[in-house]
Amino acid sequence: MRFYLCFALRKERIRKDGTCTVFARFTYNKRRLELSTSVIIRPDDWDEVKQLVKDNSKNADTLNNRLKKVDTALHDTYNRLVSSGKTFTVDDIKNEFLGKSDSKGVLEVFDYYLKTIENNIGHGYAYRTLKHYRVSRKKLAVFIQSQLRKKDIPITDVDYNFLNQFDIHLKTEYGVHQNTAWNYHKHLKRVMNLAISMEYIQKSPYNQFKTKLEQANRNFLTKDELHRLETKSLEIDRLSIVRDIFIFACYTGLAYSDISKLSPRHIQKRDDGNQWIIINRTKTKSQCSIPIYPNVLKILERYADYPEALLKGRVLPVASNQKLNSYLKELANICNINKNLTMHMARHTFATTVTLSNGVPIETVSKVLGHKSLKITQIYARVLENKISEDMMAIKGKLGM
């Protein structure tokens, strides 16, 4: 099916002043429509062969440039509809060109996806997930507004070029790391997949546009640093509590989101006579079974009657993640640990220093951490290998070998 476009005068509609309008006449699938170009001239100024305003006419360059823009815009509209993979008519070309397309907006579909997450919090989604998606939606809206000067665009307009420009925008305007940009794309990709399911588009532009997740540097505490943190005498109760929560995470591998919801019902005695933590991980929903070591048990006993924990029905008095990470920076400074101490580093420390370094099989570590794939856990094994290599090379240097 061929798309054909030409320009013509509507001489039967000559105005009282002797002028008439140039119309864009386009045909698709044997149907023809016309659109006004807003170019108004006298019939004598029109070159029917070239389909342009004659060069010697008043404002010829300006008027011909306007016709050229209409020509380009209509062909672009046609090409977009072809790329969408959907069946369309000549009326769709006209409506799309005039901004009257029935195509759903990408932000409109994103909002629908957000509503789905919001309605399923606690049933497959966490509130934190909703917050992350809202940030991604905001970044996308700013891009559309600042770069395209629109409040929204048809989801059929989201193509390779759009995604590439969005990626550049994220990195230049916000200075985000590759992995952060990857996360924004991950969220938008899921919105595009939803659009496919709802038959708004036939294929995802992410089939062509690829973005890579770089291997992140997973920092962890060494055995010496962990011991230093555990044995340091602290006079500030606030920091003592934060240390206990961090150490608890180091020896259980639990993420902040899991520790913050840990209640007495998650502490169970098993057939072996030992107490275990049995909990479904917030992020992956997979069940984790974690043995409670003596030092972990001491921490639990220390806060068994702690008012703040009892009031919330929790086993530990956990502050917000932001506050904990802020206090951990103080703690690192006091303990002479030259690392950016965060709650997530405790989980990395569990995977490396506490388990893998002590011969715990990687399959067991993966299960305890609640990883869906062994590949994720293997990252920690590679981190350890790199650390061992660095340490051995350092010894080699000291020995002058």
Automatic annotation (TrEMBL):
Residues 104-196 form the Core-binding (CB) domain. One of its GO terms (molecular function) is DNA binding. Pfam families: Arm-DNA-bind_5, Phage_int_SAM_5, Phage_integrase. Residues 216-393 form the Tyr recombinase domain. It comes from the Bacteria. The keyword DNA-binding applies. GO terms for biological process: DNA integration; DNA recombination. Keywords: DNA integration, DNA recombination, DNA-binding. PROSITE patterns: CB (PS51900), TYR_RECOMBINASE (PS51898). PANTHER family: PHAGE INTEGRASE-RELATED, PROPHAGE INTEGRASE INTD-RELATED. Belongs to the 'phage' integrase family. This is Site-specific integrase. It comes from Carboxylicivirga sediminis.
